[in-house]
Design a protein that fits this description.
304 residues, mainly alpha, DNA polymerase, domain 1, hpI Integrase, Chain A, 2 domains, two-stranded parallel sheet, 13 helices, elongated
Length: 304
């Protein structure tokens, strides 16, 4: 709204009506963001989503989804490319990399490194978003001989209901319980300074509340410690843990509806954006997600 009422007049143009916004107003907004040079085309979605949501909440058509807006975005991208801007593509983090981070977490005596390793491994193993990971409280996590369960808090999950996700122990694929051992190690190490309501990844030395971007920072640091890096032109972020877990599961033939259910995806279109069909099967993928594979049935004689 500030763009319509304040920014346009500062450019010598008349103020425009923000609601409902015309297609021309949206195009002017995109031109302003492009000229400012602070927002790249690939980062426009949150800006347009806010405009669209405001209109939808008012019972109006979404102005940011029109044909001309799509054409303007293509032009936006072309101008950036001519200027030499080629952003790294976010890709799924491979399961073998996550296995190396898991091994680091089991060996380290540094509590801060243990925290980072345990956090990114849990996010990977549960297809968690970064916001889901940092919102976990100690009371949301249970670890016992049966496996690990978390009460996930996600933007796609209703706030007034529990969403308990269980990862049972399966000796077929993780006979040494590596995932459970790592998370148990952090759970036990943090018991002395956390209460049930404490953020599960908090340390007494934290100077500020943990925010979702910290997941990307921790993943990057863990990868440096295990000497792993994405290929040139690609990057791993907090979302790479969610897409990496889902893609690794798909690679070992986990049924798609299992992946959707465990990741709290509500539609195929939603999960499709996280799946990379070029991710191949690996021993590490079976260790993390083999438990999701249907167990072969061995017939038994049932007595009368």
């Amino acid at each position: 709204m500030q763009f319509c009422t304040d920014v346009l007049p500062s450019y010598g143009m008349r103020a425009r009506r923000p609601l409902p916004a015309s297609a021309r107003t949206i195009l002017l907004y995109l031109s302003f963001l492009s000229d400012e040079g602070r927002v790249h085309e690939g980062s426009l979605n949150p800006y347009l989503a806010a405009v669209n949501q405001m209109h939808e909440d008012s019972g109006l058509e979404k102005p940011g989804t029109t044909h001309f807006v799509r054409l303007a975005r293509k032009g936006f991208a072309a101008v950036e490319a001519e200027g030499g801007y080629r952003p790294a593509a976010r890709v799924p983090v491979p399961a073998p990399v996550m296995l190396e981070i898991l091994r680091l977490g089991l060996k380290t005596e540094d509590t801060s490194v243990l925290r980072m390793c345990a956090c990114v491994v849990l996010n990977f193993a549960f297809f968690n978003r970064a916001d889901t990971g940092v919102q976990l409280c100690r009371e949301d996590v249970s670890i016992d001989q049966g496996g690990i369960s978390i009460d996930a808090r996600s933007k796609t999950a209703s706030l007034n209901a529990a969403h308990t996700m269980m990862r049972p122990h399966d000796e077929r694929y993780d006979p040494d319980s590596l995932v459970e051992r790592l998370l148990s190690r952090w759970h036990e190490r943090s018991a002395s300074f956390q209460s049930p309501r404490s953020p599960f990844w908090s340390l007494p030395t934290d100077r500020a509340e943990l925010k979702p971007p910290i997941i990307t920072e921790w993943l990057t640091r863990c990868c440096e410690l295990v000497n792993c890096a994405p290929p040139r032109g690609q990057k791993w972020t907090g979302h790479s843990l969610r897409s990496g877990g889902a893609s690794a599961s798909q690679a070992i033939d986990i049924p798609l509806f299992y992946i959707m259910s465990f990741g709290l995806w509500k539609s195929f279109d939603a999960v499709r954006r996280y799946l990379c069909w070029l991710v191949t099967a690996s021993d590490a993928a079976y260790l993390f997600f083999g438990w999701l594979r249907p167990k072969p049935y061995e017939p038994v004689r049932l007595e009368l």
